[in-house]
Amino acid sequence: MAAPDWEIVIVRHGATEWSRTARFTGHIDIPLSARGRGQATELGLALRVRPPEIILSSDLRRARQTAETIARVVGIDPKQVRISTGLREEFLGCWQGRTRAEVARTSPDGYARWRTGDIGAFDGREGLIAVARRAVPVLLAHVAERPRSTGRLVVVTHANTALALAGSLTEIPPGRWTSLPCPAPAQAMVLC
């Protein structure tokens, strides 16, 4: 399922005010914090050494702001960032907007499943397999537009979507996706 001959850099958006409170965000559309904006600039500087040909982004504001900052820093018009709802974070159902402590108290069975690495759909959560089914085609469609031997694609997304993309593209069995290192805010995973 991998995108041949492309280096794919999967980026988690920069920090938000909710990042430091361990609050589940999901599809709630919140902006980057000042720290997150700084992180996005630093990541753009690191990527400037070998700028991407394409930057894709989730439509949620925290990812879009990260992608647009990276684009400006690497010398790409931010209007050229390609936005897709398919790259959104996993829909987290009743967990959205709650802290880990709140979810542990109100949904103890689901929280216990999540803590053991269960990637399924429960408590209204979308599940990572469903996330991969919507996110991977977005990425592959953009790669197919430019068939060539090499290229760099930056995908700015969210923690769970990053795991679903990386696991799916590297053909790791879904039950092992949560064993992948989850990128912290404004960190990247590079797939060759």
For this entry, give a set of tags.
37% helix; 5 strands; Rossmann fold; alpha/beta; 192 residues
Structural account:
The chain is 37% helix and 12% strand. With 192 residues, the chain is an alpha/beta fold. The chain has a single domain (7-191), classed as Rossmann fold (3-Layer(aba) Sandwich), CATH 3.40.50. It has a 5-stranded mixed sheet, sandwiched between helices. The longest helix is centred in the last third of the chain and has 17 residues, at 128-144. The chain starts with 6 loop residues before the first strand and ends with a strand. The mean pLDDT is 94.
Please provide a brief summary of the model.
This protein is α/β, with parallel strands linked by helices and 192 residues long. The chain has helices spanning 34-47, 61-74, 100-106, 108-115, 128-144, 159-169; strands at 7-12, 54-58, 82-84, 152-157, 188-191. It has six helices and five strands.
